[in-house]
Amino acid sequence: MTYDPSRGSCPTTQGFGNSMSGKGFSTIPPLGAAQAGPAQKPLKQRGPRWTPAWPLAAAVAIAGCADDTQGFGNSLSSHAQFAKAADPGPAVDRYLAVVGGDYKSTALSLLDLASLPAAGLQQAPAAWSAVLHSGSRLGPTAMALSGDVVLGQLPGQPRQVLLVDRATAVLTQVAADSGQVLRQVSVAAGFYANPQDALAVAADRWLVPRMGRNPKPSAAAGDFDDGDDLVAVDPLAGKLVQSLALGSLSTLPGGLAAPQRMGLAGGLVWLPLGSFAADFKAQGPARLIAISPSDWKVVAQVQLPGLKNCVSVRPLPGGLLLVNCQGSYAAPAQQLAESALVVVDPQTGSPTLQIPARAGDGPFGRDAVAIDGRWVAAVTLGDFASQRPDRLWLVDLTTGDRQLLSQAAEPFGYSGIWADPWRRTLWLGEPKHALDLLRFGVDSAGAVTAGSRLSSNPGGLGALELGGL
């Protein structure tokens, strides 16, 4: 099946199990000077990450539409009911986006939480499996999804998904209601950029931390090919517009700043720095920086003594920040002591609470999420040598106490976690389990009710990343 731009719309497809049956996709007019991408080549595996074997243009806006002829089948309930319930309003997340994968291929699935009753922990929401996946054809100039994709952040743009492909360095924006691919923009600029996140601070301004450093940047100004920076993207024009170099802020002399996953609070972008050596065999102390999107400069720095490898920042109700530090994998014997959840007051730049990782439970994982200003959830990582499994904890920020909610079937069995504060529900991925989504209700006193497990993509790829929109 081919895409014919003269038709004005993408063809309706018939996937297995009717995963996209009856969905016509409108074409997106090219934005700016769209360029045809090069022919795709297989991904080369380098350690734990998949890196591309093709060059990419500095910035390409790509219009396209998904041809999902190999759909993975219908999901939790009839696809015909997807997006049919009343919308709860823009202040409330309607959809749970699930990025499934095996680090070779990726599939985006969507669950319509508006289709659930008020206390819907035992019911299955209407869902759309494999809305978009690595086998989808997106038109002649588009880049298919690799096997290393995470979710970006689009506050103020409800019902839209932003996918960050860390292998190809392409950002893909998708309308959740229709599954329409709205645009793609590359942030590669001719080198392995390794973007870790994307955050919209305006409709025409996305911020992207690029962990990759170009070993041979050009001397030309304004070509955005240095890396180890924060770049601003105009998605409407399909181009990079600014770069903020971060290398000098690394806490490891001569090392990478290695910016991680961001949080927006008080009009500032808070960004943790990994501070890795170029060969990733050493790591400096933890540092958190604040960037003014309007002034385009670093306006504050927070040091977190004794901690390393802080990988994410989440805003908490009341204006505080929740920082999640994994500890350094470069020094396994010290990792536990370097791992903690930290609450930071952005007004003073000081930590107000630190919850250290504990012996026997392991270091904290990639994500920590908040149900409200008191209750947060986090995963501690398992260990292959002792066969300690991953564990999900509910943490009381008023006391620092934690309670065990669940443990995985094996080490490194859990994946992404998302908190839905409107429905007071925690969602957790366990990708190797046939029912790969767990959910828990949490009331204001911290009482927990386990919900029924679900499959985000029956017969397909298990959940790696979760997010609301």
Kindly describe this structure.
This protein is an all-beta fold. Among the domains are: 1-189, no CATH class; 358-469, YVTN repeat-like/Quinoprotein amine dehydrogenase (Methylamine Dehydrogenase, Chain H), CATH 2.130.10.10. The chain is built from 1 helix and 32 strands. The chain has a 4-stranded antiparallel sheet with strand order 7-6-5-32, with no helix packed on it. A 4-stranded antiparallel sheet has the order 8-9-10-11, with no helix packed on it. It is globular and about 60 Å long. Mean pLDDT is 84; it is low at 1-78.
Helices and strands, with pairings:
Blueprint: E1 9-10, E2 25-26, E3 44-46, E4 49-51, E5 95-101, E6 106-112, E7 126-133, E8 149-151, E9 160-165, E10 170-175, E11 181-186, E12 199-202, E13 205-213, E14 227-234, E15 239-245, E16 263-265, E17 268-273, E18 286-292, E19 297-304, E20 310-315, E21 321-325, H1 332-335, E22 340-345, E23 350-356, E24 364-370, E25 375-380, E26 391-396, E27 402-407, E28 417-420, E29 425-429, E30 437-442, E31 448-450, E32 463-468
Antiparallel strand pairs: 1-2, 3-4, 5-6, 5-32, 6-7, 8-9, 9-10, 10-11, 12-13, 13-14, 14-15, 16-17, 17-18, 18-19, 20-21, 21-22, 22-23, 24-25, 25-26, 26-27, 28-29, 29-30, 30-31
